[in-house]
Design brief:
This protein is an all-beta fold. It has one domain. It is built from no helices and 16 strands. The chain has a 16-stranded mixed sheet that branches. A hairpin with a 4-residue loop joins β14 and β15. It is globular and about 55 Å long.
Length: 247
Amino acid sequence: MKKVFYVLVILIYSLSGCKDNKVTNPIIEGSGSISSIEGKLVDWKLAGSYHLNLQYRDLTSVWSITSQTCSSAKIDTNGSFKLTNFINVVDSLLIPSRSYEYDSTIKILENTVTDSDPSAKGTIGFINIIDDTTKMAVAGVYRLNFVHTSFNLRTFITSPGEFITNLIYRNKDQVITGKFKYERSDVHTLSTTTQNYNLNYKKGWNKAVTLLVSRTIENDGTRIIIKEEFSYSNIEPGPADWYYFMY
């Protein structure tokens, strides 16, 4: 199997001036493909009629802004919802798994990553709250296990134990395992990042969990020294919430 360096693309928007709420939900069980998500929006205060759309974007062109919907569900007056019957994505809208065999900005220290099927293609899902009256997206929904700021959605995890769960689609079964360790440096910073992959994608929609295992930040008097380790898997290590942010 071909050794590659995989970068998990996290599509989380930075939103300013927004009010934060959350969806309580236990662990999404299992590591196989999923076809439904159920939860409840706590502190649901929006007046009117709304529904959730699980959508994905056509990534085959950098110019494309077309979004397709693969599941939709009404939001009850108490904030409850259940997205079911996720549809498959047509292959023509999928792109190959993103991999980098060479990156001139980093120094590779270790690479044991293997891919069972480099021909597999996929995309990433995102959840919008749609106003039934205006037909416009008014909020985005994100699954996190960490506390965020009130006025800006954090786009990265900063403390050990924090994780983000994304919905990833694959058109084939695909197993990605191994370690990728690299170093990046400039005049101000020296960072060493270890990425441990244990991803077992099934054809269809899957969870992809990014967990920060450890991070240390020191100053040696000349540069900031950062050492961090991430884990990528299909298993949530604990409960998380579905936060929603007004656009």
